[in-house]
Design goal:
alpha+beta
Length: 143
């Protein structure tokens, strides 16, 4: 193995470790509306979002209310590139799909150097119009 290849491998490993450390922070979001995640209805409020890493490489997130009364485990069903506007701003976000009577948490992005995660979503009514709501998150200083 050449010196160049060794240096390239070390640089790549360092980048992966740095990205993992940055994305391991607990984030905070102020969600101003009631929403659904999976089958659970969550009230409006302040929430903490923390990554949980499994040994097999599967990532999950704990979404818990700031007062500790409500918490759910979010298991992404897919991931991909974040929207360009998110990547340009660098600010982590939660995304919701909102119909006439309810909103559902459908995605999250924890910031630069991480993928955007897609969460399972309930189906809207057949002809129900939908809109997307995006809530910015920030690093939780209480962590």
């Amino acid at each position: 193995m050449t010196n160049f290849t060794k240096r390239l491998m070390v640089a790549a490993a360092t980048l992966v470790v740095a990205a993992g450390a940055a994305s391991a922070q607990t984030l905070k979001a102020e969600i101003p509306f009631t929403f659904r995640t999976g089958t659970v209805v969550m009230p409006a409020g302040t929430y903490r979002i923390s990554p949980i890493y499994q040994s097999g490489g599967q990532i999950m997130f704990r979404l818990g209310s700031y007062d500790g009364h409500n918490a759910v485990l979010l298991v992404p069903k897919a991931f991909g590139d974040p929207r360009m506007t998110w990547a340009d701003s660098g600010n982590p976000v939660l995304t919701f799909e909102c119909g006439v009577s309810r909103c559902a948490l459908v995605g999250l992005w924890t910031g630069p150097e991480t993928p955007a995660y897609v969460l399972p979503r309930p189906k809207l009514g057949r002809d129900e119009p939908a809109r997307v709501a995006t809530i910015a998150m920030r690093v939780d200083k209480a962590d």
